[in-house]
Design goal:
By secondary structure, this protein is of the alpha+beta class. Helix content is 69%, strand content 13%. Strands 1-3-2 form a three-stranded antiparallel β-sheet. The chain is elongated, with a radius of gyration of 19 Å. The mean pLDDT is 91.
Length: 111
C-alpha cells in the first residue's frame, strides 16, 4: 500500500464516527470550546474528549488552550468539501431509494 493509500485509510477511519462528523459540522461555524461543543451536541465531556482525541491525532482539528478552556478548530477547511460531497452522495442514494419505493408501490397497486 502506498503512503497516500495509508493516509486515506487512516483519514477516513478518523471520520468514521457520527459524533466526530457532528463535531466537524459544528466547527464549520468557526472555533468552539469543549463546553460549548458538549452543550451543542448534547454529549458528555468524556465522550467528546475521546472523539476529539481521534480528530487531533489525525491532524483534522487543532486545539488552542486559553486558561482552563480548550478551543477547537478545523486545521484544513477542505474537509468541509469532503463532508459536503458525502452529503450529496447520501442525498443521491436517498433519491434512488425513494424512486425504487415509488416504483414498487405502483407495481403493487396495479396487481
Amino acid at each position: 500500500m502506498t503512503d497516500l493509500g495509508r493516509f486515506k485509510a487512516e483519514f477516513f477511519k478518523a471520520l468514521a464516527h457520527p459524533l466526530r462528523i457532528a463535531v466537524l459540522d459544528v466547527l464549520r461555524n468557526g472555533e468552539s470550546g469543549v463546553n460549548e461543543l458538549c452543550v451543542t451536541l448534547d454529549v458528555e465531556q468524556s465522550s467528546l474528549s475521546q472523539q476529539l482525541a481521534v480528530l487531533r491525532s489525525r491532524n483534522i482539528v487543532i486545539g488552542r488552550k486559553e486558561g482552563l478552556n480548550v478551543y477547537y478548530s478545523v486545521r484544513d477547511t477542505t474537509v468541509f468539501k469532503l463532508l459536503d460531497v458525502a452529503r450529496q452522495i447520501f442525498n443521491n442514494q436517498l433519491v434512488g431509494v425513494k424512486s425504487m419505493l415509488s416504483e414498487m408501490s405502483a407495481t403493487t397497486r396495479r396487481r
